Amino acid sequence: MNVKKILSIAGSDCSGGAGIQADLKTISAHGMYGMSVITSVTAQNTTGVYGVCDMDPDFVGRQIDCVFEDIPPDAVKIGMVSNADIIECIVKRMEQYKPEILVVDPVMVSTSGCMLLENSALQLLVSRLIPLATLITPNIPEAQVLSGIQIQSEADMVQAAHIIYEKSGTAVLVKGGHMTGQASDILYRVPEGEPEEIWFQGERIDNPNTHGTGCTLSSAIACQLAAGQNLETGVAEAKKYIAKAIQTGLNLGTGSGPLWHFV
């Protein structure tokens, strides 16, 4: 049996809707073999994040070594990395092992509004980690931080994507879920020196339960790319998957509930 292998480097969500747990469910739903390196353990549920305990950076590195030296992944997804020492450790390992596919979800703020990235880590994330990625997937608040501009329109989303690309040289998917109206995303990349702006139009789904959507989408994209899809098709297929996962209407918890990953 030959199966694609996907590694998630991210934080743990004890309530199962986001982070490592959402990633592993998404990878399994795509018929692939999921592996995990835990960067932080969080105390959270559908109502918010109530505590974050970071792993020792050296131990994060040891986890990465164990995976790459035994079961080299076909794609890597990186999510919550909350401090500079952990980011430095991950950067060194990514430079060492050079994964062919690397999707970075620059997690900064949880769905409930809790800040998950220390200020001291932001510059390192931008200058060292993001430039190594195949694709980054910021939402509107994250794109505002990364670009330094306010985003209030689709034109602003385009400008932000341009700025982020100029800083990093990495393809950018700016997700429009925080905008009013349609939940459309823009993919900006420069293949062979020619800029491309690709819009993915999406109808807003009437479901307040969106806990872990960013984690799920970035993991789904990593799976699609590992399966051999190009970037445009991979994003499109991942968006179809996440739309179905939201449309199922799973309703757990008293806050912003999780998706049904096995749709």
| Main structural class | alpha/beta
Shape, principal axes of CA atoms: globular
> How helical, in percent, are the residues?
25-40%
Overall average pLDDT: 93
Q: What's the Cα radius of gyration?
A: 17 Å
| Largest sheet: spatial strand order | 3-2-1-4-5-6-7-8-9
Largest sheet: 9 strands, mixed
Name the helix and strand elements from N-terminus to C-terminus, one letter apiece.
Answer: EHEEHEHEHEHHEEEHH
Number of strands: 9
Intertermini distance: 24 Å
Contiguous runs where pLDDT drops below 50 for at least 5 residues: none
Q: What is the count of DSSP helices, taking H or I runs of 4+ residues? A: 8
Give the percentage of residues in beta strands: 15-25%
Model description:
The structure is a single chain. With 263 residues, this protein is an alpha/beta fold. 40% of the residues lie in helices and 20% in strands. The protein has a 9-stranded mixed sheet, sandwiched between helices. The chain is globular and about 45 Å long. The model has no long low-confidence stretch (mean pLDDT 93).
Brief summary of the model shown:
By secondary structure, this protein is an alpha/beta fold. The protein is built from eight helices and nine strands. It has helices at residues 19-29, 57-70, 84-97, 119-129, 140-147, 154-168, 213-226, 231-247; strands spanning 5-13, 33-45, 48-54, 75-78, 102-104, 135-136, 171-174, 185-189, 196-200.
